[in-house]
Structures are given as C-alpha cells and as structure tokens.
From TrEMBL:
Domain HTH luxR-type: 144-209
Response regulatory domain boundaries: 7-124
Protein name, as recorded: Response regulator transcription factor
Organism for this UniProt entry: Pedobacter riviphilus
UniProt keyword Ubl conjugation present: no
Length: 213
C-alpha cells in the first residue's frame, strides 16, 4: 500500500541544488514537492497559498532572510509545520542555532536521498529527528557549557590590574615579570574566555566577581 503523501517545501537560494533536490525527492512516491523558495522572505509569500505544506527543508545561509529567521517565523506563524535544516555547515553554532529556532532536525546537504527521506518521515511522525551529527554536537555543547575556565593566581592578579589605568608595562613592573610574560597572561585569558579586548576582560572579571573595584 502506498504511503500517504508528505507535502514539502524547499527553501534554498542555490537554484541548481534546490531543483536537483526536488527532482530526487519526487522520485519517492510519498513525497510531494509543493513549492520552492529562494529565501525566507520568498517562503513567507508562498506559505499563505500553500497551507498543506507539512515540512520545510531549510537552508541556513541565504540572502534577505536566512534560515534562522525563516525558521523562527515558521514556528511562530505556522507552528504545525515542521522544519528540517539542510545545510553544509557542521559547526555547533549552526546546528544548535537552528534547533533553538525551532527546527526538528538537522541534515547535511551531502546526505543521501534515502537518509533524507527517513529524516522527513520521522519528523512528520514524531516532530523531531536526532541523528549522529546532532547528538554529537549537542553533547559537545553540553560538555563545553559545564566547563568553567580555570585561572592561575598570576592571571587573576593580572586581571585585577587590568581594571586600573596602568599600562601593560607598568603592570609587568608591579608583578616583577617581563612585558612579554604579561602579554602571555593577556593572551591566555583571551583564549580561555574567547574575549578580544582588555575592556572585555574587565567586564568579565566584574560580572564574575574576579575583580575588586
């Protein structure tokens, strides 16, 4: 018995990829490509006339309105429509960003049509699809969020001096180290905190009670 059709929209600004994907998916009897859109704004315009859409294959990097904003709009205005992110990006920021925006799953563009079909069916039936890519990135992000930076006593002393008007040379003199060592303290803190300025270090230190004003 033939499965019930799943109505899908594809949102991607790359015409060749979008059209090629539509052709591949239409070979599955259970897939019905309702429409294609070039970005989130185009999606908005076409959704009103295509209420039967059940799932949207959403690219991330698109001009005018990207996948993050388009997914948020879909979940706000069409909460019953599922979103499956389909991107070339593999980093945690992209994956978690799309999941936070409301996507029910995340697949790479290099995925096979059969894998994509599996993800589509699972999301339509269950509301989400967690593959190895997503679970792996979520675990890494969870692990990173639990890790608090560890500072040496000298780095904390340097951080305290950063809240003053002292130059790095004067800080080095007070700490009885060379200016190069002070540079190392600064670069180490920049790396640990992903901060790029002295002001950023001071703000972090105050917020985390590491600096006494």
């Amino acid at each position: 018995m033939q499965d019930q059709s799943i109505f899908i929209a594809i949102v991607d600004d790359h015409t060749l990829f979008r059209s090629g994907l539509a052709s591949l998916l239409e070979e599955f009897d259970e897939i019905n490509i309702t429409f294609e859109a070039v970005n989130g704004l185009d999606l908005q315009a076409k959704m009103n006339n295509n209420q039967q859409v059940q799932l949207i294959l959403m690219d991330i990097n698109m001009p005018v309105m990207d996948g993050f904003a388009a997914t948020k709009w879909i979940k706000m205005n069409h909460p019953n429509v599922h979103v499956l992110a389909l991107s070339m990006l593999e980093d945690e920021k992209a994956i978690i960003g799309m999941l936070k925006a409301g996507a029910g799953g995340y697949m790479l563009k290099e995925s096979t049509p059969s894998d994509l079909l599996t993800a589509i069916k699972v999301i339509v039936n269950k509301g989400f699809y967690v593959n190895e890519l997503v679970s792996g990135r979520l675990l890494v992000a969870l692990k990173d969020s639990d890790q608090k930076p560890v500072f040496s006593a000298r780095e904390l002393t340097f951080l305290q001096y950063c809240s003053t008007e002292l130059t790095y040379k004067e800080i080095a003199d007070l700490m009885n180290v060379s200016p190069r060592t002070v540079d190392n303290y600064r670069e180490s803190l920049f790396a640990k905190l992903n901060i790029k300025s002295r002001t950023g270090l001071v703000v972090y230190g105050i917020k985390n009670n590491l600096i006494t004003i």
